[in-house]
Write a structure and sequence with these properties.
Two copies of one chain form a homodimer. In chain A, 47% of the residues lie in helices and 19% in strands. The first copy, chain A, has 13 helices and ten strands. Chain A has a five-stranded antiparallel beta sheet, with helices on both faces. The longest helix of chain A is centred in the last third of the chain and has 22 residues. The interface between A and B is medium-sized, with 32 and 32 residues. Chain A binds a DNA duplex through α2 and α3.
DNA sequence: CTTGGCACTCATATGGAACGAGTGCCAAGC
DNA sequence: GCTTGGCACTCGTTCCATATGAGTGCCAAG
């Protein structure tokens, strides 16, 4: 266990290092912070911190920089979360207030978060399992293609094309089928609707013409897929340009990070594994992200509620980032998004 | 005017430099290419090329590298476009063949192009002005919100929410309005449909209840917007990770490039200004992109037809890129996309 | 436990010398 | 008139040796 003052020294090292990007020495600490002790005393504390692997030196006789473990302890012992400035709050309000549909809300949210933190911002789309199905449409796009359009509460639209090879699709046929599906699905939430459609699928023989059964099945399969497609597995990203900030933070790992952003799958897994032990904001620091090749990266994320399910949003940046400020910002944006989505439905 | 052999020397310099990323000297040229002349002769040619500002030296006595102007002449005098290998063609076929809706086609196209060229790939969404309107839906999302869904040929769906503050939206009302709009718009192409809706807007007083006119107007405005929204102004991007390839190509300009990719507006303008003088593939090299801050970047683009209108797709990369191969690939992918979209409709 | 002092380490900066790739130019050759 | 071999010259790169200074660890005294 580290002493009270040692912890204060760690905090000083982290914040100085984040600000200057240079190893910080004992003298610099007594100069910039008002500990009531001399540099030699600080040096003793630093020796202890180094023993605990909370800080390290770049070479035998240089100042110290925090290790992953040091950052971790720093984050865990951050006393209070700085509230945002009035200007920042206003910016959030203004930015989100103008948005129209969900797509737009997500895009604005990540852009905002990226701008406020100067990091890469990521947000998971809300899960829609508990959302009500408002409307279902089947539209013939030609003789062999039918477009299925699903309209969910809060204005989300899913579309998908069903191919019905070598068939003669007529408007009347499509219309009748639509009616049946709508009866089974519209009005209930997505999960129940999926069950309804499955039910319909299993009784196809009872109500469809024998020569149409195959076609009907295809359409129902597509609708089922749409209902089961988990929106939660989409993410919005913004601020990739922040990766190339001066400082060469991501020396070798920039390609890995860019790939992760493009892949999305990696980010989703990473987000999924984040543990929120009591706190509303969680962090994953450096080597904790090793399994994803992102050991030079830290992630700060917060849950945001979304009716029944929970989704996440956060930022991704270099190990050396302003954790205090980023945690505050992520939390604030998540709260606004919460409130905003709450109003919506 | 440069002589025949000088031009050949330029080609040698470009291809060697692209391959090695090092200034190429006269000796290296005679070694690697079978000109029937000595190094001294090559040096004379190089002096001429330098006079014409087609090549330059990094310092007084080093090998030469091509200038922007040199790359330009090189591209303009590329004799024949290398055809793709069978494997590459197969990859294209396979990759595009699996796609479902337009969104998916575009995503696959850029991913493919990025992978084949190792550059950032960009594609403009097809313009839909000549596409037929298949279907229009209005769905009440609550008492004060109506979702308008527009279904176009080839399975494109546009949605937008209309807010009708302080009103009591009923299903019956929405249904009636939908019918009217559908009569005016469904079946004709997007441009005519827009005209039809505008017509409807101007005669609102004649058929709507006085106290509903304001609400009807709002809905019609939203539908109009949807019809006029130009899909052509959306782009798909992939392969950003290729920017961080070793070689430090984008030393200082990486942030600019990343921003351009995220902004999209810049890329759209850039694409819009590309001139195709007779060729099916065009290039914009280095300083030619100065106005957009992308003077360290080259762009290779091709038109792809899309019924009436024309859209573009291409790649963006460092000045020092394999123009010959990239031009061939962009052209091939554009052709496949052409064919694919042709089959669709 | 704190503090001043001191020897020690090591990254960085500076400068000079050797090296070598590549050029420009010239006079001779085809 | 174009081509060629030769040669002096330039200049970036590498290597080494030295000087500097920031920062440490340790110790003995307060």
């Amino acid at each position: 266990m580290v002493s009270e003052r040692s912890l204060a020294v760690l905090h000083a090292i982290v914040s100085d290092y984040v600000a200057s990007n240079e190893p910080v020495g004992s003298k610099a600490i007594v100069d910039r912070h008002s500990f009531g002790v001399s540099a030699a005393t600080i040096r003793n504390d630093m020796a202890l911190l180094e023993e605990d692997e909370l800080i390290a030196q770049t070479h035998t006789s240089s100042g110290r920089i925090p290790t992953d473990k040091g950052y971790r302890l720093y984050v865990d012992t951050l006393a209070r979360i700085r509230p945002l400035t009035a200007a920042q709050r206003a910016a959030i309000e203004r930015f989100l207030g103008e948005s129209t549909d969900l797509e737009d809300v997500m895009a604005r949210t990540v852009r905002l978060l990226a701008q406020l933190t100067n990091q890469v911002a990521v947000a998971q789309y809300p899960s829609l399992r508990r959302t009500v199905v408002r409307h279902i449409d089947l539209v013939a796009l030609g003789e062999d293609r039918v477009l299925s359009v699903l309209i969910l509460g809060s204005g989300v639209v899913e579309q998908q094309v069903a191919w019905l090879p070598a068939s003669r699709v007529t408007d009347a046929w499509v219309h009748g089928l639509r009616q049946r599906i709508a009866d089974a699905a519209v009005g209930s939430d997505v999960e129940s609707a999926a069950a309804g459609v499955t039910e319909l699928e299993s009784t196809v023989e009872e109500w469809a013409q024998p020569d149409e059964i195959e076609l009907v099945r295809r359409v129902l399969t597509v609708v089922s897929e749409q209902l089961q497609a988990n929106r939660n597995e989409r993410i919005a990203v913004a601020g990739a340009a922040n990766l190339s900030r001066p400082g060469g933070e991501f020396a070798g790992s920039l390609p890995v990070v860019l790939e992760a952003i493009e892949e999305q799958v990696t980010l989703l897994r990473l987000f999924g594994e984040l543990v929120h032990d009591g706190r509303d904001v969680s962090a994953s620091i450096g080597r904790e992200n090793e399994p994803y090749g992102l050991s030079q990266t830290s992630i700060i994320a917060s849950n945001y509620e979304d009716g029944a399910a929970i989704s996440k949003l956060g930022v991704l940046g270099p190990l050396r980032m302003d954790y205090a400020s980023n945690i505050a910002t992520v939390r604030a944006v998540a709260r606004y998004l919460n409130r905003f989505l709450g109003e919506e439905r």
